[in-house]
């Protein structure tokens, strides 16, 4: 049974991971299935070192895992339910109001 503190930590980790557009793009790409870093970097148009840093963050947050595959390492979502959660979050946010940012209604950035 999870405690409230661990539930909060899980949500905070997820929030930190989603706070960066590149990490969001990585998670959405991995929603479609496992991928190798070089392929992800090419598909996302980012350098391999930059992608490596984002993958390390996502690993530290517990959202992706590195799976040895011979001489290579592929990455995948740590749990298939994360893909469903991403879909739910994406559609929930779009349903709220596309193009609206945090705090926009009050004229301030609540996330700054």
In a nutshell, what does this entry contain?
The chain is built from five helices and two strands; from the N terminus they run H-H-H-H-E-E-H. By secondary structure, the protein is mainly α. The chain has one domain: Winged helix-like DNA-binding domain superfamily/Winged helix DNA-binding domain (Arc Repressor Mutant, subunit A, Orthogonal Bundle).
Gross morphology: globular
Spatial sequence of strands, sheet with the most strands: 1-2
The rounded distance between the terminal residues' Cα atoms is 34 Å
Number of separate helices: 5
Instruction: Give start-end ranges of low-pLDDT stretches.
Output: none
CATH class: Mainly Alpha
Largest sheet: 2 strands, antiparallel
Query: Average pLDDT across residues?
Result: 85
Structural class: mainly alpha
Count every beta strand, where a strand is a DSSP E run of 2 or more residues: 2
- Assign the CATH topology: Arc Repressor Mutant, subunit A
Say which CATH homologous superfamily is assigned.
Winged helix-like DNA-binding domain superfamily/Winged helix DNA-binding domain
Helix share bin: 55-70%
H/E element string? HHHHEEH
Under the CATH scheme, the architecture is Orthogonal Bundle
- Radius of gyration of CA atoms, rounded to a whole number: 16 Å
């Amino acid at each position: 049974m999870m405690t409230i503190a661990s539930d909060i930590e899980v949500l905070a980790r997820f929030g930190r991971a989603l706070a960066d557009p590149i990490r969001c793009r990585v998670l959405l790409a991995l929603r479609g299935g496992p991928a190798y870093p070089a392929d992800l970097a090419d598909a996302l148009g980012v350098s391999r070192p930059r992608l490596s840093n984002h993958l390390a963050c996502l690993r530290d947050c517990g959202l992706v895992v590195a799976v040895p595959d011979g001489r290579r390492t592929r990455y995948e979502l740590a749990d298939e339910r994360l893909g469903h959660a991403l879909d739910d979050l994406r559609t929930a946010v779009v349903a709220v109001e596309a193009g609206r940012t945090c705090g926009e209604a009050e004229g301030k950035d609540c996330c700054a």
